[in-house]
Automatic annotation (TrEMBL):
Keyword Kinase: no
Entry-linked Pfam families: Mpo1-like
TM regions (residue ranges): 26-44, 50-69
Name the record gives this protein: DUF962 family protein
Keywords: Membrane, Transmembrane, Transmembrane helix
Amino acid sequence: MADRLPSYSAFWPHYLREHAQSRTRALHFLGTSLAILCLVLLVVTGSWWWLLAALASGYLFAWIGHFFVEHNRPATFTHPLWSLLSDFRMYGLWVTGRLKDELRRAGVQS
């Protein structure tokens, strides 16, 4: 189904449903937090190794959640840009305490 999503507005609820289990979301939040930290360290130190660390940590934890918790394929494989945007959108909603309502609208029992 992910291959046939015609727009980002159709993709977003699908993305949330692909992150239905709280453990998957927790791994995403951990990976995204580490990736943000690595990007800050890139700016502070100027060492480009932090960019590699940001990519590795961001994807590693998310993919562990998909393959071993959620048992689905990461949306990165079919919609890489929408997936990246959605990861940061989900992260922002979590940080601001609004994720539960958004999950409910997408039909996810949080």
